[in-house]
Amino acid sequence: MKHVIITGASKGLGLALTDEYLAENAVVHALSRSIMQVKGGHHYEIDLTKVDALKDTFTAIFEQIDASCTELILINNAGMVEPVGTVIENTPASLEKSVTLNLTAPMATSSLFLQKSQHLNVKKTVLNISSGAGRSPMEGWSAYCSGKAGLDMFTRTAAAEQSEENNPVLFLSLAPGIIDTGMQETIRSSSEDSFKHVDTFKSYKANGDLAKPETISGTIVHSLLKDDLENGALLSIRDYL
Fold this sequence. Notes:
By secondary structure, the chain is α/β, with parallel strands linked by helices. α2 runs parallel beside α3 (92-117). It has 7 helices and 7 strands. The chain has a single domain, classed as 3-Layer(aba) Sandwich (Rossmann fold), CATH 3.40.50.720. Strands 3-2-1-4-5-6-7 form a 7-stranded parallel beta sheet, sandwiched between helices. The chain is globular and about 55 Å long.
């Protein structure tokens, strides 16, 4: 039995991944702030910016995983683009929340995943949902770009450590492209003073250039994660569409 842990599971790409894996008869452990029904799986209501609560959540998750488990996947999908604005506009509180959700939380979930799954001699994967913004700077997104760049480096470092293990966990970081989600709505609502590329992102929507979450989730589940990938790889969904 395949078990999949997904953060930010109640909407956007996270919800599409949840539905995709449920359709594959995997046991999904869905983490989100919003209450949701997960038929064939489990939901854990949690605010991922409260990282101290993660330990109890992962204890509860692994109480549901027994010897019938054949594969374990953690998908760190939860993230936020805010604060949108130039560096001079950012506040300490908004920066702390951004870095916690985009970087600290996936680092913490990865650590707990490794700790709790040590006894399971099965295929294990951690897929971090990063962004092209972590690989190329964009004015107005200093917090988001920095958090995602940090997530890429964390992925590579964790993979390097796993090279010493007998049953290494596969760590991957994926830039999923521009997807039609609530994050894009947030971006389009930005002022030009705070984010000078806002008109470009408005045109993506107007021209139908945004990918559907279901398209990206299907590609991740049925193509990307079936590929023979190097541990620590920084991937782009464009290579699979």
